[in-house]
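User: Hi! I'm working on a homework problem where we have to compare a predicted structure to a textbook description. Could you give me the structure for the chain below?
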Amino acid sequence: MSKVLIRVAAVVGAAGSLVAVFGLPWAWYGDRAVRLTEFPGWAWYVGAAVLLNLVTAGTIIERGRRGWLLLVAGGLGVVTIVAAVVVMAHYADVFLGPVVPAVRPSVGPGGPVAVLAALASMTATGLRYPRFSRSS
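Assistant: Happy to help. Predicted structure tokens:
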């Protein structure tokens, strides 16, 4: 596969992760934007996303065929996506306790961008290794 396409997918994944963590709200509470760090368990997503992007960069930089990197990137990608979905699914827990507020919280764009960024990083790794086996 084209090296340019692989690198573009990796950069999109890394940039998307950065934007999701630092730039976009993960929930809205009326006019108030709620950032990722206000959610319980946010560090799990950030840790998994950092590791996924490091492994993705390693697969692109590494010469030769290292099939185990594909497996590691796939596993980290799944962990990253699950962590983002778990954080997104509990957006109301940040606000809702025993009292029901008059303003209803809603999901922000940060979570979906985080999932798409992880998929882009996994795609970059998958494009790097189009065939897992060496048989021709």
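For your comparison, note the following. The chain has a mean pLDDT of 82. The CA atoms of residues 70 and 125 lie 6 Å apart. Good luck with the assignment!
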